[in-house]
């Protein structure tokens, strides 16, 4: 049996791990069906750039679209791995679907923390995951990775060619990786879509890729459980970062009670700058 420590060890060594049997075929089918509904209702079409893909459909801001996606964000198997890479005060950075269509070219190799102005290697700022809603194979565009590249002292040159390997995995599996890992979506040479959910997290002191506080209606956030509210940024990081007039956003904006202590409460009258 693969333990939490095993997964964290693999990420520390290789930059990634694959978690098997996180969800079943029925749940995968339900998510795909919901994504099909959203694609039609929202009029989503492929982008016109090589990063997002010209034959790839991406649906963003999925926490605004129901419980199926809320459950992904707080998954009891995957979230502890993410917390082990970041910490328990991590945030949802973005959750989106990625359906790589037939004929799509390989995405340029990149690192998810590449635009951050930090020397490398550095403490993890990002930990991302890909949920396989269909089988991921080399032929249909499985994520391509460069093991160990998260330890490099630089990011990849965008658009350059690199030797990589496909992170093949059956439906129901989840790929989890360090934000510095060099990777990219593969080319799809089959006649079927490769469908997945990109469930991405960042450290609590890093700005989220999608603005969860403004992108999600407050009435929707009020229905989230407390853990998901915190993941969306309605708590504070270490009792300080993200407060509103010395209150957590949950207490100030959602009308609920909060037992989160603020950093000043622990000072016991000590002087702070």
Explain this structure to me?
With 273 residues, the chain is of the alpha+beta class. It folds into two domains: 4-203, Jelly Rolls, CATH 2.60.120; 217-266, no CATH class. The protein has eight helices and nine strands. It has helices spanning 4-14, 25-42, 67-73, 79-85, 212-215, 218-222, 226-234, 249-253; strands at 16-19, 56-59, 91-100, 126-132, 144-145, 165-166, 174-178, 183-184, 194-202. Strands 1-7-4-9-3-2 form a six-stranded antiparallel β-sheet. The termini are far apart. The model has no long low-confidence stretch (mean pLDDT 95).
Features:
273 residues, alpha+beta, Jelly Rolls, 6-stranded antiparallel sheet, 3-stranded antiparallel sheet, 8 helices, 9 strands
Nutshell version of this structure?
The chain is built from eight helices and nine strands. It is of the alpha+beta class and 273 residues long.
**Helix-strand category:** alpha+beta
Strand content: 15-25%
How widely separated are the two ends? 49 Å
Q: Could you spell the SSE succession in H and E letters?
A: HEHEHHEEEEEEEHHHH
Largest sheet: 6 strands, antiparallel
| Overall number of structural domains | 2
Second CATH tier, the architecture of the largest domain: Sandwich
Shape: globular
Number of helices: 8
Q: CATH homologous superfamily of the largest domain, by name?
A: q2cbj1_9rhob like domain
Give the CATH class of the largest domain: Mainly Beta
Tell me the number of strands.
Answer: 9
């Amino acid at each position: 049996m693969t333990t939490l420590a095993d997964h964290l060890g693999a990420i520390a060594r290789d930059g990634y791990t694959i978690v098997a049997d996180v969800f079943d075929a029925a749940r995968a089918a339900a998510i795909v069906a919901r994504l099909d509904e959203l694609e039609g209702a929202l009029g989503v079409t492929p982008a016109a750039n090589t990063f997002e893909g010209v034959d790839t459909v991406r649906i963003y801001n999925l926490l605004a679209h129901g419980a199926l996606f809320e459950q992904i964000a707080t998954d009891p198997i995957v979230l502890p791995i993410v917390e082990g890479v970041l910490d328990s005060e991590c945030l949802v950075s973005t959750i989106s679907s990625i359906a790589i269509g037939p004929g799509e070219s390989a995405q340029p190799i990149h690192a998810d923390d590449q635009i951050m102005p930090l020397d490398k290697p550095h403490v993890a700022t990002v930990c991302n995951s890909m949920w396989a809603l269909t089988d991921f194979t080399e032929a249909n565009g499985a994520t391509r990775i460069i093991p160990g590249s998260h330890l490099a002292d630089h990011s990849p040159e965008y658009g350059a060619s690199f030797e990589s390997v496909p992170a093949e995995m059956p439906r129901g599996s989840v790929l989890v990786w360090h934000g510095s890992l060099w990777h990219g979506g593969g080319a799809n040479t089959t006649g079927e879509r490769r469908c997945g959910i990109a469930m991405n997290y960042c450290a609590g002191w890093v700005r989220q890729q999608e603005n969860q506080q403004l992108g999600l209606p407050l009435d929707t956030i009020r229905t989230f459980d407390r853990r998901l509210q915190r993941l969306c940024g309605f708590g504070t990081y270490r009792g300080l970062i993200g407060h509103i007039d010395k209150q957590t956003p949950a207490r100030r904006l959602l009308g609920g009670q909060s037992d989160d202590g603020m950093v000043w409460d622990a000072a016991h009258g000590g002087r702070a700058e």
